[in-house]
Write a structure and sequence with these properties.
Blueprint: H1 13-25, E1 31-35, E2 38-40, H2 44-48, E3 72-74, H3 80-97, E4 101-105, H4 112-122, E5 131-134, H5 140-144, E6 148-150, H6 152-164, H7 169-180, E7 187-189, H8 195-201, H9 204-208, H10 211-224, H11 256-271, H12 273-278, E8 282-283, E9 289-295, E10 300-306
Helix pairs in contact: 3-4, 6-7, 10-11
């Protein structure tokens, strides 16, 4: 509804500035979800700049084609003035609130030429290391300057292995395939759930079969990927869908043992991030077990995860028996 203001429900610009400051003190980065493809129907651009939107043959502004997103209006990226204002708005949050970057919503809907123009402009802001995540699958996002895109293919295979009894070795195959298709020093953001999945499909416990199965899927994902997403609720195994249109408060006091498992996983992963990011994994997987190793001159890491809702046997590789 407004690219240059904070919704009063959440506070004001000073509150955001304070949040970012506190986050930086904790060595955390803050990124904003940037919706570039469309605006709300009550955005002032609708009245003041109607040519900034896509119109049908009768001259009426339309919703994004091919979607059921009737609550939003499609922006016209053939309009240079709109593109310039969009870039100015993105810069505003970096310069005014000191945010660290953007998670760009529905990035595949927005033309490459705009992302390249916008990111080139953002990178000219001095003394900034901007984080750029595209919620999309196009490989030209990396050419435009994004460092990460969503790993939808990996997620789809992960679900099939756990829910359809497909071979666990398929996970490693798609892992290699995704990484081989992107430039070096970039990443695929991996996950066991995200905002869409938790809102519209199922919580991870149902997607993968149980909380323990979801935990196993997270172990596979987090130790196989330099970039991993934790969506709020999954770390306590929240059992219900979480809407992003309505308020669904999460009771963070439940399932603390499960939360501690997540903490232990992330503590171990944090200490091994350099190893995971700098070396290639070697697979020892079979139909039921996802097993892979990382190794350098000083560290050997073996990850073993059961992808079945039953006990299975696995022979540890000879190199790790000592």
């Amino acid at each position: 509804r407004d690219y240059l203001d904070v919704d009063e429900e959440y506070g004001n610009i000073s509150d955001l500035q304070n949040l970012v400051k506190k986050a930086h003190e904790l060595n955390m980065a803050v990124v904003l979800d940037w919706v570039a493809n469309h605006t709300a129907w009550d955005h002032p651009w609708i009245e003041n700049n109607p040519d900034w939107y896509v119109k049908d043959a009768s001259g009426q502004i339309i919703s994004p084609p091919g979607t059921n997103w009737n609550d939003v209006a499609e922006l016209n990226y053939n309009n240079p003035a709109m593109r310039a204002e969009m870039i100015r708005s993105m810069k505003f949050w970096i310069e005014k609130a000191n945010i660290d970057g953007f998670r760009c919503d529905a990035a595949d809907f927005v033309p490459f030429s705009f992302w390249k123009q916008a990111i080139d402009s953002l990178k000219k802001i001095p003394n900034r290391n901007i984080i750029l995540l595209a919620e999309g699958s196009r490989n030209d996002h990396y050419t435009a300057g994004f460092q990460m895109t969503y790993a939808w293919d990996f997620y789809g295979i992960l679900i099939n292995v756990f829910s359809e009894n497909e071979s666990a070795s398929d996970i490693f195959t798609i892992h290699k395939s995704e990484l081989d298709a992107i430039p070096s020093n970039t990443a695929k953001l991996r996950y066991i759930t995200n905002h869409d999945e938790y809102a519209w499909v199922n919580p991870p416990s149902l997607t993968f079969g149980s909380n323990n199965a979801a935990l196993s899927a997270f172990v596979i994902t987090s130790f196989l990927s330099p970039s991993v997403l934790i969506y709020n609720g999954q770390e306590i195994g929240w059992p219900d869908k979480i809407s992003f249109f309505n308020k669904n408060p999460i009771d963070w006091s439940v399932n603390q043992e499960f939360l501690n498992e997540f903490k232990n996983i992330m503590k171990a992963r944090t200490s091994l991030t350099r190893l995971i990011a700098s070396t290639s994994a070697v697979s020892y997987s079979n139909n039921d077990i996802m097993a892979y190793t990382y190794q350098n001159d000083t560290i050997q890491l073996l990850t073993i995860a059961n992808t079945r809702l039953a006990s299975v046997s696995f022979v540890v590789p000879e190199a790790f028996k000592n």
